[in-house]
Amino acid sequence: MIRSFNYSSDSLVSEMQKNRRHICFIINPSANRKRSMRHFSTLQKEIERRWPDAEIVLTTTDIPVMDLARVKGSQFEIVVACGGDGTVSQVAGGLVGSGAALGVVPIGSGNDFVKTLHLDKSIPQCLDILVEGTITEIDMIRFSGDKEGWCVNTIGMGLDGLANYYATQSTLLKGFLLYAVGALKAAISFRGAKMTLKIDGEKSMNDYLMITLCNGKWEGGQFYIAPDAVMDDGWLDLLIVEKLPLYLILSYLPRFKTGPKKSMRGIHSHRCKELELNSDQPIYVHADGEHISGAVQHLKLSVVEKALRVVVGNY
Question: Domain of 66?
């Protein structure tokens, strides 16, 4: 059954009062610059073959995806995000505290979240995991301050946030090339900002180019920025890039496909549970590949342990 919803506040309450059913699929037709709809017929056929009574919901602009996921989380045991990292992030944020488990069918551009959990599979394989897999609990990142919300994979501030913003403006490129070009443009136009960081209570001040807090290992398609990140260990991996000459930034960008190296000047990796950031000028921020704002100066971020239930493979 395929439905597109336009909820009023009264109908939201009514929907939330229904008894839970087994599985619901939330499909974002705008994912991957609307290229995700190329998979729709295959996805629909495979879903109906396995779950004849499954509900399939196409997202619309009438209700935020997070609100839709919150409703479905009260009705279903498993809510499946079909889209890219932004869709996964919004569905995950809506499921926090609901008891429902998140499933994922990655049909977006970057699909970074699924790589850490080994869910970067074909559509039939992902659906098989929903049938045969197990449910695990993973951590999430909670942020507040100038903006607030949830993050399931990475949240990037400064160069990282601006690179993502440029990537979202492109309608022609896709995949790793999309994010690589965004990163190149950001490296040329952003030269850093003076920031004060408080990492688990320890304060430092410097001119920083990029601050990225990671629950997962990858972002931007193929940037392997946190090789040691584990999604259920109660820790977050923090990548800090100081203000650097442009030639060094440009030389480092392709090397991040294999992870940061100790030999890279001005680049530091930490593990933490809490981070507070104050910038002397507005900076760009993204959360799970979704542009949050270009005018952030203050954020508090922390790990929330075992915040999300996720269906994973039996590996």
Answer: 2-132
